[in-house]
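Example 4.3 (complexes with small molecules)
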Amino acid sequence: MSTAPESTAATAGLRGVVAAQSKIGDVDGEKGILIYQGYDIHDLAENSTFEEVIYLLWNGRLPKTGELNDLKKQFQANYAVPLEVLEMMKTFPKDANPMDVLRTSISALGFYDPNGHGTDRETAVKTAIKLTAQIGTLVAAWERIRSGKEVVAPDASLSVAENFLYMFRGEKAEEDEARIFDVALILHADHELNASTFTTRVISGTLADIYGAVTGGIAALAGPLHGGANTNVMKMLKEIGSEDQIDSWLDKALEEKRKIMGIGHAVYKTEDPRATWLRKFSKQLGEKKGDLSWFNMSQKIEKEMLDRKGMYPNVDFYSASAYYLMDIPLDQFTPIFAVSRISGWTGHILEQYGNNKLIRPRAEYIGERDLKYTSIDGR
Ligand code: COA
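Answer. The structure with coenzyme A bound is encoded below.
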């Protein structure tokens, strides 16, 4: 009897295919709604903190004061990475791409975690805490190493967002910037079965370790059609140069069938709710720094793409100019995405371990059959 799977021709890219059950987050692409464990992203962005959202993603409910303080303390106690990993990073070529560096160094962290292969909930949560605390340290350390500066030791009195900006830039951020960054981390934390999260579930579904699953997630996030888009948005804005060039630049780009970075989404058919916040931050930071040019350009491109193609900006569109105005180099935008998304990845990994089934779909075979082998000189 044939076991051939049904055709997937109608679901290229697995669009619309439900591949897992999850309580972590949901995207309503028609209405533009994103929820984490039942809470609307707007409510969380307005009122919550990144640490609280991590607790929510991992535990399915908001923490009480003691629980939140305990989680914060555990992050702070784990900010520092093994010196061996920092030494290893110093041997990398200084022009290495930060996402490649992050992929390799996060994997190396696993060498120094004797319990890193544990998949029971208690051990896996401890590993998730370490990884979430340390990923920002790695990103910041690479920024310092590649620019010939001293690595800044983490400050255990600071939140994840504050500590990251401190280690990255070498000085503490002003309160309003730290809050913007904290909300940006909340906004990027989870997005249901996006490509990198699906990758982490596939890897952890084999009962491989969390370090391996997160390493795979970083590899997937790096692509320009996923997390890599934010860097490319800023490159595009710089390539266009000024607002008066937008029309002619877009005419040409669309004629050449170029994808406009930061625009369009596989699920949202209306405004991505995360873009609503990042648009506001791009403007707020532009006003603060006395440079609204990037915000104004972005707004015009947004309007043109809506008028011409009926397409909306996604999370990467306004995060680009917001991060740029926070003095973050373009190729660090995507590693920063990972600093946040690790919370969603680890949430999904914990969920996968908790009710595991190996993820093993079928492919529809469209090749030939019944060919007969011919020797090499007879071909
Ligand atoms: N700019 C111009 N045209 C776009 C576009 C964009 N950003 N995104 C999609 N389109 C067009 C495609 O060219 C295609 O047109 P066609 O039917 O004439 O060939 C149509 O819209 C469908 O595109 P497709 O790539 O199949 O849709 P998708 O749902 O798979 O795309 C993305 C989702 C996100 C991959 C896509 O919109 C994209 O590449 N955006 C830019 C990259 C980006 O910002 N990624 C971050 C996502 S959070």
